[in-house]
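Customer escalation, tier 2.

The customer says the design service returned an amino acid string that "doesn't look like it belongs to this structure." They asked us to rerun it and document both sides in this ticket. The original structure tokens are below, unchanged.
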């Protein structure tokens, strides 16, 4: 554990504040103050898409963007009115993560780091959490090691780097989602892929492969982490299963669960992907988790494992 004001980027994961853990603590504290926690609260919490980095950083960034006069007013209005939930309801939910990605790339992009190593470094949670913690301490009208682009003679200030990253983000989004900013949605940007071992076979591979639009982001409890450097916005890390149990229930048998695709690994089975659409919906209708065959009379198949005597 490094001291709170440790000035250098550490290669040790989770050495400082973590955004998702911060949000969990924030939300659990709120729920405890309201009264007893319920199963419904826990189900809702697993689908939480609130971005604490946006909550902390946008109040710093917005005045810089506005004073520059270089950022489109429509984008600024969406960012100012955003509630920081990375769901599909606001264009800002698509704008902010792309800005964050472009600024993160600018931090290390001017260094002589091989592309594969740079890509892995940018995707580590340590650098994302480092930026969330340290950016508020950087003076916008001054430069530092992180903000300056060493490939240019000019020494860029942090404010100039923030603006440059935002302009790049808006250009990327226009190319990817169209010129009409009011149609931008994060679930048109992020895609979760579920490959099969046979997905890469030409012609027939798509039969085995599954994908669907995603909400959430790298910093939300309902996580969707994606490769920053390739700019494909494909979720490479997300929840594979949601599980909620009430350990205080009399028979310890009150619980709900859902996997992200289905219970079968056989692409020809109706249960290969029958959970997929349910898994992507907010406040998912989870399956009742039961123990003992007497509790699952409608199961399609029951596998019984007996120990050899």
């Amino acid at each position: 554990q490094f001291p709170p004001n440790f000035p250098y980027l550490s290669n040790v994961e989770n050495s400082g504040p973590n955004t998702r853990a911060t949000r969990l603590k924030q939300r659990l504290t709120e729920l405890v103050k309201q009264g007893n926690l319920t199963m419904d609260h826990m189900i809702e919490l697993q689908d939480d898409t609130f971005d604490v980095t946006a909550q902390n950083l946008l109040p710093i960034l917005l005045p810089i963007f506005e004073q520059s006069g270089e950022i489109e007013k429509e984008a600024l209005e969406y960012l100012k009115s955003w509630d920081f939930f990375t769901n599909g309801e606001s264009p800002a939910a698509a704008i902010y993560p792309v800005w964050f990605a472009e600024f993160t790339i600018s931090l290390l992009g001017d260094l002589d780091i091989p592309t594969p190593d740079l890509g892995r470094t940018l995707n580590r949670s340590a650098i994302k959490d480092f930026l969330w913690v340290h950016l508020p301490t950087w003076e916008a009208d001054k430069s530092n090691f992180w903000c300056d682009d060493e490939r240019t003679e000019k020494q860029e200030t942090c404010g100039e780097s923030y603006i440059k990253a935002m302009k790049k983000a808006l250009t990327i989004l226009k190319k990817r989602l169209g010129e009409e900013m009011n149609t931008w949605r994060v679930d048109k940007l992020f895609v979760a892929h579920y490959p099969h071992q046979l997905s890469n076979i030409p012609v027939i591979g798509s039969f085995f492969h599954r994908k669907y639009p995603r909400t959430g982001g790298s910093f939300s409890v309902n996580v969707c982490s994606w490769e920053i450097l390739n700019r494909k916005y494909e979720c490479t890390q997300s929840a594979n299963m949601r599980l909620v149990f009430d350990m205080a229930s009399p028979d310890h048998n009150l619980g709900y669960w859902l996997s992200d695709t289905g219970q079968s690994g056989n692409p020809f089975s109706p249960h290969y992907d029958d959970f997929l659409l349910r898994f992507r919906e907010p406040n998912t209708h989870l399956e009742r988790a039961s123990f003992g065959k007497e509790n699952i009379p409608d199961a399609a198949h029951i596998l019984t494992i007996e120990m050899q005597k």
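Tier 2 assessment: The sequence is consistent with the input. DSSP finds eleven helices and seven strands in the chain. The CA atoms of residues 75 and 118 lie 29 Å apart. Sent an explanation to the customer and offered a walkthrough call.
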